[in-house]
Amino acid sequence: MENELKEENQVNEVSLETEGNNGIRISDDVVSVIAGVAVSEVPGVAGMAGGFAGGISEVLSGKKNLSKGIKVEVGEKETKIDVNIIVEYGTRIPDVAFEIQNRVKKAVETMTGLKVLEVNVHVQGVSTDKAQEVTEQETKEN
User: Fold this and answer.
1) For residue 11, what pLDDT is reported?
2) Looking only at Cα atoms, what is the longest distance across the chain?
3) Residue 69 pLDDT more than 60?
4) Cβ distance 67 to 37 under 8 Å?
């Protein structure tokens, strides 16, 4: 009987703690992976611009780093996200950036319940792989 009362009191204590701040803390890494997946689905994004360390860990682990090029600041109820991308040659950069902002905001808010205050898109480069392929094909045709 005493054990049941103790267990009941412990449950009540936990529920009181969770009511104040929801008891949930979402890691920066989780938010950055969610944002990374959303960015990777946007047409016109050639890749993510990450640091040297991100590239090395990707090579060593053999896994794609989904949070590469994304910096996140998570507060209690809100978050700010910076995205560093490389765009494909020939795409309209403002359209790509706008689409990234919309998709990242929607994905993070839907999955985490956090309010996204900012999604800053930093274009770090332009991938000319497709432009080179087109030029090479034109050269071969002539």
Assistant:
1) 41
2) 91
3) yes
4) no
Task: List all residues 6 or more positions away from 103 whose beta carbon is below 8 Å from its beta carbon.
Answer: 38, 39, 41, 42
Q: Helices 93-112 and 28-40 sit at what angle, rounded to 10 degrees?
A: 140
The pLDDT confidence band at residue 43, using thresholds 50, 70 and 90, is very high
121's CB contacts (< 8 A; 6+ apart) are 83, 85, 97, 100, 101
The predicted model scores a pTM of: 0.69
Q: Say how far apart CA 103 and CA 110 lie, in whole Å.
A: 10
If one counts every other C-beta atom within 10 angstroms of the C-beta of residue 94, the result is: 10
